[in-house]
Write a structure and sequence with these properties.
heterotrimer; A alpha+beta (188); B alpha/beta (221); C mainly alpha (397); A: 188 residues; alpha+beta; Beta Polymerase, domain 2; 5-stranded mixed β-sheet; 5 strands; B: 221 residues; alpha/beta; Rossmann fold; 2 domains; 3-stranded parallel β-sheet; two-stranded antiparallel ribbon; 9 helices; globular
C-alpha cells in the first residue's frame, strides 16, 4: 500500500491523500494523468476490480469530482482516485477499454451530470431517462421539487413544516423563547 | 398525420418502410396507418336490471390480475399466490398477458418511463377493466412527492377504482382491496373504463404533458 | 428480387450469424434471418421491471441489450435535499427484496464519517438482522431458480417459509418488508421475549425444507439437464466484468465481504463460504443453496453467542441538527447477491453532498448479462437472469 502511494505520488503527481480506514484511501490526481494512473493501478499494482465510477458536483468551486474506486482483491485494499474536472467544459477521457462496465457508468454520468466521454460506445443512448428535455438532473442547480410541482399534479393538502419551528410550537406552546434559551451543543 | 410524421421521437418500428412480400413484390408499409386504427375508443354498453346484475356478479367473481410489477409493491404479490393468503379462493388469479386480464395493479410509484408502458398495456386490456393503486405513492406521490421522475397522482393518467394505502401494503390489505373492488362492481360502480373513454382527451392531455417522447398511436387497443 | 422460400429444411444454421474480421456478428435485420424481440418490462420471466432487447436467429440469441430505468426514482438526488435522518427511511427503498443491507451501509457510512463507535449488543443485533434478511431472500431465490424452468412447487414452499421469517421481522422491528431497524448509531430495540425459541422452531422447518429442496431440485433430471453448462462464466471474467458474491464463488473465486473484510461480528463467527468451479447455472444454484445452509447455521451461532442485554445505541447528536464532518467514505457489506456498497460524500452540512449506491446488479445485469446471453436460447434467458440475481432498482436507483 505504501509503495503504491509513493509510486502514485512520484509518477502521477498524486496529492491530498486521506486514509479513511485501514485499507481504504482517497487520493487526488490531475485530469490529464488520471487514465494512465488507473491503467497503472490495474496492470502493475493489481487493482483489477473497478468498484465504482461516479461524480460529485462541487458547484461552489465550479468543478465536478470524478471518483474511480479501485479494489485490489489480493491485498484487500481500495484506492479512490479523485479527479477534478471543469464544470463548464465537462469532458473526460474515456476508460471503456479497461473494463467492459465502464461504458455503462459513463452513459449514466453523461445522462445524469452531462459529463461527456468522447469515444465511449453508445454514449448518446438513453440509459435511464426517456425524452428528458431539462438540465441533467443530478446537477446541483437542478431543483427536483420545482420540476415535480410544475410537471406532475401535486395533490392539494400536503403540508410541510419546518421541523425546528414545528417542534418549538409543539413543545413550548406558551413560551417559545424557552426553546432558544436551551443552548444547542452539537457534541452532546 | 403529416405533422406526426415529422416527429423526431417516432419509434423506428413505426417509420414507413418497404417490405418484400412472399411473392417477391415490394410493398410499402406504414405501421401507424396499417397496424393501428385512428379511431377513438368507444364505450361498452351498460345494461340495466337483472342482466346487468348477473354480469356484474360474474365480473366480480373472476378478477384476473395482470402480472406486471410496476414498482416495489410487487414484492407482496407472490405471497398472495401461496397457500397462506391464497387469493385463488376469491377468484383472483395472475395472468401473463393484458389480453386475458381485467385488473391492473399499479404496484407503487410509477416512473415516467413505466407510465408509458402502463398506458399502452392498460389500453390493450379488454373492457370492463379495473385499476388498483397500491401504496401511498399512487395517491399523492408518497415519499417521492418531490422526485423528478415519478408521477404524483395516478388518477390523472388512468381511472382508479380502488386505492390501497400503505408503504408497503400488507397482503391482507390487498385482499381487503379485492373485497372492496368486488363490492363496487356488484353495486354497478365498476365502469371506470367508460369514464376513461368519455374523458379521453383530458387523460391524453395529462399523459402527453409528462411523456415528452410520445412515439406511439394515441390509442393502442 | 429472387423469390424467397417460406420453408427451408436441413439448412446449416451454424453459419448464422456471419462474423466480421473482428469476430463480431453481422446482424442485418432486413435480411430476414434475424428477429428483434423485447423481453420485458411486462414479462413474467424478467426479474423485476426491466427489459432486454434481444436479436434472435431462430431461437438463439445473437445480441442482447439491457434497458433499465423503469424504476428510477432519483434517490441520490432526493437524499441530497434531505437531512441525514430523513435519508434513512428513503434509502431502504432502494432494493426492495433485501432492504437491510441498505440500512446498514447508510448507517455505517454515517458512523464512519462522524466517528461513532457502535455498542457491542447493537453489533450482534445488526449481524442477526442482516443474516435474517439474507435468509428470506435465499428462501425465495433458490427455489425461484427452479421456477424459471417452470418447476413452481419449491417456490410455493419457499415463499411460505419466507413469510414465517417476515413474521419474525415484524416481531422484532414492527415492519414486514421495510424494517427501518438499523439506524445510525445503533439499532432500535432488543429481542422480544421468547424470540430465540420461536426462531429456532422456524429454523427446524427450514432444515426439513432443505432436504426436500435437495431432492426436488438437485436430484431432478430436468433441472440438471437444463441448468448444467448454461450461462458459463470463465474465471478470468470475474475481475474484468465485476462478478461478485455467489456468482464469483461458483467460478472458484472467493468473493465474500464477510470473509475478506470482516465487519460487525463476522470475525467471531465460524463459517466457510462454499466455492465450486463449474460456474454454470447449476453451480450458482448450488452455491446459493449452501449459502442458505450456512445462513441458518450462522443465525444459530449468533443467537447462542449474543449477550442477553446491553447498550443498543450510541450517543448521537440531536438528529434535527446533526452535522457530519466533511469527508468521504465507502462502506460495504455482503448482501445475498454480492458486495453491496455505498459511497458517501459529506460537505460539513446537515445534508449529504452525494450518496452513491453500488450493488452487484449494476455490473451483473449490464455488461455481463449482455455477454452471457449470446448463443443462449430464448427459453433460458430467465434462468440466466435469476442465477445472477439481478435486482433492477439497484441499477437505476
Amino acid at each position: 500500500m505504501q509503495d503504491t502511494i509513493k509510486n502514485l505520488t512520484e509518477r502521477f503527481g498524486a496529492s491530498n491523500m486521506i486514509e479513511k480506514k485501514p485499507g481504504l484511501i482517497f487520493i487526488t490526481i490531475e485530469q490529464s494523468k488520471a487514465i494512465s494512473a488507473v491503467t497503472y493501478l490495474r496492470d502493475i499494482e493489481g487493482y483489477t476490480v473497478l468498484t465504482l465510477l461516479t461524480a460529485v458536483d462541487w458547484i461552489e468551486d465550479n468543478v465536478f469530482q470524478l471518483t474511480y474506486l479501485l479494489n485490489n482483491p489480493e491485498q484487500i485494499t481500495e484506492i479512490g482516485l479523485r479527479v477534478m474536472i471543469d464544470r463548464e467544459k465537462a469532458e473526460m477521457e474515456s476508460a471503456h477499454h479497461l473494463w467492459p462496465n465502464v461504458e455503462v457508468y459513463q452513459r449514466e454520468l453523461k445522462e445524469m451530470y452531462g459529463i461527456n466521454f468522447p469515444g465511449s460506445p453508445r454514449i448518446d443512448e438513453n440509459f435511464i431517462l426517456e425524452g428528458w428535455n431539462d438540465k441533467p438532473p443530478y446537477r446541483r442547480d437542478f431543483d427536483t421539487k420545482e420540476y415535480a410541482e410544475n410537471n406532475f399534479f401535486p395533490r392539494p393538502g400536503r403540508k410541510t413544516n419546518d421541523p425546528a419551528e414545528y417542534m418549538k410550537q409543539k413543545m413550548y406552546p406558551n413560551n417559545p423563547s424557552d426553546y432558544t434559551n436551551k443552548k444547542y451543543n452539537p457534541n452532546r | 398525420m403529416e405533422e406526426e410524421r415529422k416527429d423526431k421521437f417516432l419509434a423506428p418500428e413505426n417509420e414507413i418502410r418497404q417490405v418484400a412480400a412472399p411473392d417477391g413484390s415490394i410493398i410499402e408499409v406504414d405501421p401507424l396507418e396499417d397496424y393501428f386504427t385512428q379511431e377513438r375508443p368507444k364505450p361498452y354498453k351498460v345494461r340495466k336490471g337483472p342482466v346487468e346484475n348477473f354480469l356484474n356478479w360474474a365480473r366480480a367473481e373472476s378478477l384476473w390480475v395482470l402480472g406486471f410489477g410496476t414498482g416495489c409493491g410487487s414484492i407482496e404479490i407472490p405471497p398472495l399466490v401461496t397457500p397462506r393468503y391464497d387469493m385463488f379462493r376469491f377468484g383472483v388469479q395472475m395472468r401473463a398477458t393484458p389480453r386475458q386480464s381485467n385488473v391492473f395493479i399499479i404496484s407503487g410509484y410509477l416512473s415516467v418511463k413505466t407510465l408509458k408502458r402502463v398506458i399502452r398495456t392498460y389500453e390493450q386490456m379488454p373492457s370492463p377493466k379495473y385499476v388498483m393503486g397500491l401504496g401511498s405513492c399512487t395517491i399523492n406521490g408518497g415519499m417521492y412527492f418531490d422526485s423528478y421522475n415519478t408521477i404524483n397522482r395516478l388518477d390523472h393518467y388512468l381511472p382508479v377504482d380502488v386505492y390501497i394505502a400503505g408503504c408497503m401494503p400488507r397482503p391482507e390489505a390487498l385482499l381487503a382491496g379485492f373485497a372492496k373492488l368486488k363490492e363496487l362492481i356488484k353495486e354497478g360502480k365498476g365502469h371506470k373504463a367508460n369514464e376513461y373513454v368519455e374523458n379521453f382527451d383530458w387523460y391524453k392531455d395529462n399523459q402527453k404533458k409528462v411523456i415528452n417522447d410520445w412515439n406511439m398511436p394515441d390509442y393502442n387497443w | 428480387m429472387e423469390k424467397s422460400k417460406l420453408f427451408t429444411l436441413n439448412e446449416d444454421r451454424s453459419l448464422y450469424p456471419e462474423h466480421d474480421e473482428n469476430g463480431k456478428p453481422i446482424v442485418d435485420l432486413s435480411s430476414h434471418k434475424f428477429l428483434k424481440i423485447w423481453q420485458g418490462p411486462q414479462h413474467p420471466g424478467v426479474t423485476g421491471n426491466m427489459s432486454l432487447e434481444l436479436t434472435v436467429s431462430g431461437d438463439e440469441i445473437v445480441e442482447s441489450k439491457t434497458h433499465v430505468g423503469y424504476l428510477h426514482r432519483g434517490f441520490e438526488k432526493l437524499m441530497e435535499r434531505r437531512k441525514y435522518i430523513q435519508c434513512f427511511p428513503t434509502c431502504i427503498r432502494m432494493c426492495v427484496a433485501e432492504p437491510d443491507p441498505n440500512e446498514y451501509v447508510l448507517s455505517n457510512a454515517i458512523e464512519e464519517l462522524s466517528g461513532i463507535e457502535v455498542p457491542e449488543m447493537a453489533k450482534w443485533l445488526r449481524t442477526l438482522v442482516l443474516e435474517m434478511a439474507r435468509l428470506q431472500v435465499l428462501l425465495r431465490g433458490v427455489p425461484g431458480q427452479a421456477g424459471t424452468f417452470a418447476l413452481g412447487l419449491g417456490y410455493q414452499w419457499g415463499n411460505y417459509l419466507r413469510d414465517l421469517i417476515l413474521d419474525s421481522f415484524e416481531e422484532l422491528t414492527g415492519g414486514r418488508v421495510y424494517h427501518m431497524y438499523i439506524l445510525p448509531g445503533g439499532v432500535r430495540g432488543l429481542l422480544p421475549d421468547g424470540f430465540k425459541k420461536r426462531m429456532e422452531d422456524k429454523l427446524k422447518l427450514i432444515d426439513e425444507f432443505m432436504i426436500k429442496i435437495d431432492k426436488l431440485i438437485f436430484q431432478n433430471v430436468v433441472f440438471e439437464s437444463r441448468a448444467r453448462g448454461l450461462g458459463y462464466i470463465p474465471k478470468e471474467w470475474v475481475d474484468v466484468y465485476g462478478v461478485y458474491g455467489p456468482a464469483a464463488r461458483a467460478a472458484g473465486v472467493m468473493r465474500d465481504v464477510r470473509k475478506t473484510n470482516p465487519y460487525l461480528k463476522y470475525s467471531e463467527l465460524d463459517f466457510e463460504p462454499y466455492t465450486t468451479t463449474d460456474s454454470d447455472v447449476f453451480a450458482r444454484t448450488e452455491v446459493r443453496y449452501n449459502d442458505l445452509k450456512m445462513t441458518v447455521d450462522l443465525i444459530r451461532q449468533i443467537m447462542a453467542k449474543m449477550p442477553e442485554k446491553g447498550d443498543i445505541k450510541a450517543e448521537t447528536p440531536n438528529v434535527m441538527h446533526w452535522k457530519i464532518p466533511k469527508g468521504e467514505t465507502y462502506s460495504k457489506c455482503e448482501s445475498s447477491r454480492g458486495e453491496y456498497g455505498m459511497y458517501m460524500v459529506s460537505d460539513g452540512s446537515d445534508k449529504p453532498r452525494r450518496v452513491n449506491l453500488k450493488g452487484p446488479s449494476y455490473t451483473h445485469a449490464n455488461a455481463l448479462l449482455d455477454r452471457l446471453l449470446i448463443n443462449a436460447n430464448i427459453a433460458d434467458t430467465a434462468a440466466i437472469m435469476v442465477s445472477l440475481a439481478t435486482c433492477p432498482p439497484e441499477i437505476e436507483r
